[in-house]
Amino acid sequence: MASIETTSGDPTPPTSATPARAAGTQTLARGLTALELVANSPGGLTIQDVAERLGVHRSIATRLLATIADFRLINRGPDGRFRAGGGLAALARTVYSSLREVAAGPMQELADRLDASVALFVAETDDAVAVMVAEPSNSAVRVSFREGGRHPLDHGAAGYALLTALPPRPGEDPRVTEGRRTGYVVSYGEVMQGYWGLGVPLAHAENEPPACLTIISASRELIDTCIDATLATAAQLSSHTR
Asked: Is the Cβ–Cβ distance between 83 and 74 less than 8 Å?
C-alpha cells in the first residue's frame, strides 16, 4: 500500500483528480497535489506526468510546477523531470522535530537488534502517518515504510495502536480495546497483503497527537519475538514524550 515499500520501491501512489472547488481553492489543491506527486516520485515527474495524474491540461500543470519551483520546493533537472527540492527538505526538518529527535537513537537500536524496519507513526485527523523510519544497518533485504505514507486509522497495526491512545469509539475494533490492556496490537494483511504488523503506542502529552512504533514482517514468528523489545523501546520513548 502507499505507506510501505520494498527495497526496490513502489510506484507513486495514484492520486485522484481534484474535486470541483471554487477557483482559488481548486488551484491551491492542485498545487499541493502536484507537490505531493513529485515528492513521492524519487525518479521525478515530467510536466505531462503531472498533467495526466491531475487530470488537467499541460499548460495548467506547467504553471503549477513553475510556481512551486519558485518557492524551491521542487527542482527541474537537466532531464526535464521535477524532483523534490531543498526547500521541501528544510520544511520537513521541522515536522514533529522534537519527537523525531527523541526517537531517532532508540529506533535505530531497535531496528538493528530486530533486523527489521521500525516506523514512527502519528495520528493526523483520521489517518496514521509515518513521520520517521529507522532501517537496520546491515540488512540487504527488507520490507520498509515510506516517510509521509499514510493509511486510515481503522486499518492496520499502526492505526489500531494510535486509536488505543484515544477515547473509546462506538463500534471500535476489539483489537483496539484489547490493545489498551496489553499495550500493543497485531494485525495481518490490512495495509500490505501477506504481511503482519505490530503497533505499540507511546504515551503522549496533552494536546499532542498520539504516536506509536510499528514493525511489519512476512513472519508472524518475528512479530511475536519483537513484542517485548518494542514495548521496552516504547516505554523508553514515553518517558520523554509525556
From this structure: yes
Identify the CA nearest to 190 among candidates 168, 173, 171: 173
> Of 22, 14, 27, nearest to 56 (Cα)?
27
Q: Which residues of 31-51 are buried (b: 16+ CB within 10 A; e: fewer)?
A: bebbbebbbbbeebbbbebbb
pLDDT value for 169:
86
Q: By C-alpha distance, which of 189, 196, 183, 190 is closest to 222? A: 196
Q: What is the mean pLDDT of each run of 10 residues along the chain (242 residues)?
A: 43 42 81 92 94 96 95 93 86 79 94 93 92 85 76 94 92 94 96 93 85 93 95 92 67
C-alpha span between 179 and 126 (Å, rounded): 18
Cell digits for 7?
527495497
List beta partners, residue 199: 185, 214
Q: Give the H or E element holding residue 128.
A: strand 127-134
- DSSP letter string, 30-93: HHHHHHHHHHT-TT-B-HHHHHHHHT--HHHHHHHHHHHHHTTSEEE-TTS-EEE-HHHHHHHT
| pTM (2 d.p.) | 0.72
